[in-house]
Amino acid sequence: MADFYVLGQGIVSLGDITAETGLPGALAKVGNVPDGGLTFSAETNAFDHRESQSGKRRTDLKINRNFDITGQLTVEDITPENLATFFKGENVVDGGITYATIASEPLSKEYWLDFQGLNNADNDNPFLLQLYRVVFGPPKSSPLIGSELFQIIVDFQALFQPLLEEDASHLGGYGRIGVPTPA
Length: 183
Known about the structure:
Blueprint: E1 8-17, E2 24-29, E3 35-43, E4 47-50, E5 59-63, E6 66-75, H1 80-86, E7 91-94, E8 97-100, E9 111-119, E10 125-136, E11 152-158, E12 175-178
């Protein structure tokens, strides 16, 4: 089997989640996202079972009790919609300027995250990442003055979606990743 590498670019979109089905409504593009990534973690030492027949109490079973998917996005399109989404507020128009209010107590609104990617390491063939439920943390700092673009840098946590757990192609009910099937 040949090596398969992924060097991604593409479009990140967010959508409101339909409560009845767990599927998104209309997806809205976030704009330019020069950096983004995922971290997968499992707590593996939560439960070790030891056999009791040899007298040596060797570990014969390890159970992963927790599984988490976290990530980070760097967003450069500073639109009223992005400000409201990532600062967890709403838009207010005053004198022809749209201001995003910042929520004093951030809400944990959940979004469907969709990444329609191009794999630059594979002739720009498509690949897909969908996370069924994500919540964003507060934005991190970004320079307002200087030679760099202002960016909204946010961490997110993927949440388990029981409505979509049954499909075998899913990341255990968190989402799915798709790459082209080799010919």
